[in-house]
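From the shared-data thread, chain only:
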Amino acid sequence: MSTYQGRPLPRPGEDVVDQGLAFDLATLRRRQALRVFGLGAVALGLAGCGAEEQTASTGIGPLGEIPDETAGPYPGDGSNGPNVLTGSGVIRRDITSSFGTATGRAAGVPMTLTLSLKDLANAGAAYAGPAVYVWHCDRAGAYSLYSEGVTGENYLRGVQIADDAGEVTFTSIFPACYTGRWPHVHFEVYPDRASITDASKAIATSQVALPRETCDEVYQQTGYEASVTNLAQVSLDSDNVFGEDSGALQLATVTGTPMSGLVVTLEVGVDTTTTPTGGQLSGDGAPSGAPGVPPSGGPGAPGGAPPSR
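Structure, as tokens:
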């Protein structure tokens, strides 16, 4: 056995129960067992672990490795069509507008997204220096570079370099809920700035899940009308990306209001000792029929042919 629940084993030659504390605790988080940590720890043979091995990152236990996920059909990283990461100007904080020769701007409820990277190979210390690429759909559910009407735009895409605290912050707008997917933000982590032009060098690919309460508030605002119906038809449990554990390690914390602007934060555990399994996976994480997205089988559509490079 070299994997468990789709995750590479840090000690391939040993049983699952002998994979080490970090692996066991990440498994607990993926099973949403933190609320019954004592029982889960016994089940995994962790009863002898002292309280001093827990951290204050969640108030309950150590941060686990962010699950590797699909990059979806609209990454814009060169793995499925266009590569926005080769463009001058992609390293920026404000991603609401397009850059280069494109001039479009995405309208919507203001959102600030902060990802706090933790280096799990270094006892969860702040992970300074990696490049983080973020992208998501607009308030109509369309993805720049791919969706009908915005193929010439590159808004809601950008890169930041993690500071000494391991943080990257982006100014954006709150994304829509499109057909069949829970509201989310995509991101890729690269070891450094020089690596971003090659998607194969990503050391983590994942998604941020947005809380239901916040989505309900935002989708009452102008421009998000279709999201009300779409959100009513999905849940974290049924989502084809977050459904395994209801986004236990991916569900963001949100403060603020749609009127004043929202602040979305998530701690992201990155383990450079494990082999990345995300990126362009089968079942690419976005069903056909999303607003502004070509129908199934068309260029750039989920399950269809990639657009021209």
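Confidence is low (pLDDT under 50) at residues 25-61, 282-309.
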